[in-house]
Amino acid sequence: MIAPDRLHLKPSLRNRLLRHVLLPLALTWMIGSALVVGVASYFMQQAFDRALLDDAYLVASHVRRTADVGVGGLELGLTAQEISTVLFDQSESLYFAVLRPDGSMLAGHAGLRPAILNGTATPQFDALDYQNHTLRSVTIHRQQPSDFYVVMAQTTASRDRLLQRLLVFSIAPQVLLLMGLAAWLQRAIETDLVPLAELEQALGRRDARDLTPVPVSASTRDVQRLGQAINGLLGRIAFSVQAQREFSGNVAHELRTPLAGIRALADYGLRHPDPQVWREQLTGIAQSQARASHLVDQLLALALADEAHQSLVQEPVFLDALVGEAVLRFLPRADAMQVDLGARGVDRPVQVIGNAALIEGVLNNLLDNALRYGRAEAGECRITVSVVEVPQAVVLSVSDNGPGVSQAQLTQLSRRWVQGSAGEALKEGSGLGLAIVSEYVRLLGASVAMQNESPHGLRVTVTFENPAL
What we know:
Blueprint: H1 13-61, E1 63-65, E2 74-76, H2 80-86, E3 94-99, E4 105-108, E5 124-130, E6 133-142, E7 148-154, H3 157-192, H4 194-205, H5 221-270, H6 275-308, E8 315-318, H7 319-336, E9 339-344, E10 351-354, H8 356-373, E11 381-390, E12 393-400, H9 407-410, H10 421-426, H11 433-444, E13 447-452, E14 458-464
Parallel strand pairs: 9-11
Antiparallel strand pairs: 1-2, 3-4, 3-7, 5-6, 6-7, 8-10, 11-12, 12-14, 13-14
Helix pairs in contact: 1-3, 5-6, 6-11, 7-8, 8-11
C-alpha cells in the first residue's frame, strides 16, 4: 500500500499520457524537420552549384589560343565589360580565375586558387577561403584549345539566408501546430478521464458497509469494463459478507438452544449429590454437545457451499468409487444400528463431470439423514445406494424403508430448517441436511428429486446430465 505522503510523487495519468504521446511526436517532428531541411539544403546547393558551373563553362568557352608564346599560347577573349556582365549577381559576389597547368594565373582575380589542381574531367566543388570570405567554388579542367583550369567562386550569403528563411517558414508553423495539438490532447484526455475521477470520488465517499454497485458514466469501453470489474468485486464481497452474516446469525440462533440445554443439565447435576444423577446429566451433556457439533458442521458446509461457486473446479470423477468409499465409511455405524446398508451398480466404472468433494458431501448427508430418520418402525431396516446409467445421464439414488414423509412436507424438505415428521418426532437435527444436498447439487449442475417409496420409505435421486465420455 502506498503511503499518503508519497502519493504526490506519482505522476498523474493525464501527464503520463501527454508525455507518452507528445514526446514521440516531438521527436518524430524533429527528425522529420531535420530530414526536410537536409533535403532542401542539398537540392538548393545543387541549384546554386549548377549556376556556378554554367558560369565556369561560359568563361572557359572564351579561352582561345594566341600566337604570343610568351603568355603560354592562351588568352581570355572577354572585355572588361563582358567580364562584369558574367560576374554580375544582385546578391552575391563572384570571383574567377583562369590558371595554366602549372598554377600560374592567365586571367581573373589574383590569389584565387584551389589547394589542388586535379586533372580529372569531372568538375570539382569545394569550399575556398578568399579575402576573409568562405566561398563556394568549382574547378573545371579543359584540354582544348590547350590545358588550362577555370576556377569560379561566389559567396554564400543569399544561400544561407534562403536556408534560414526555409527553416523559419517550415518549422515555425509546425511548432504552432504541435502546441495546438498538445492543448487539444490535454483537453481531450482530461475529458476522457472525467469518468475515472468521478469513479474515484464515488469510491472515496463510499461507506465501508455500502457494497451496492457504483454508478459509472463510461465514456470508453475500458472505463466501462473497469466499472463493471469494480461492481463485480463489490457484488462478490457483498455476497461473501451476507453469507458470513447469515452464518453467524444462524450459529447464534441455533446454538442458543443446545448451549442453554447443556447449562441446564450441568446446573441440575451440580445441585444433586447423587453420582447417578451426575452420570445421567453428563450423558445428556455429551448428547447435546454432539448435536451442537453436528449443527456447526452443517452450518459450515452451507457457508462453504455458498462460497464454492466462486472457485468451483469440475472434472471427470469416478462415481462408483465415491459411492463405495461412502458406504464403507458409514458401514460401522449402520451395523451398530442394525441397518442393512448396501450399494448397487458400482461393480463397473461410472464417470461423471463433477467435483469429488461436493459429491462426497451429497453422499454423506444423504446417508446420515437415512440412518437418522429412515429406519423402519418394524422389521428389517434397509438403506440402498444405487448408481444407474441411462441415456445421456447418470442417476445416483439413496433409498430407505423408513416412515417417509407426507406429500406436503416432500416439497419443502430442501429448504433450510425444514424437517420431516420423523425428525420432528425424534427431536434431532435442525433441517439442514437436505438443504446442503440441494445446494451441492445445484453447484454440480445436476438435479435432485425426492419421492416416497412404496409401501413406505423415501428415495432421494440426484441426476447428473453431464456424464464423462
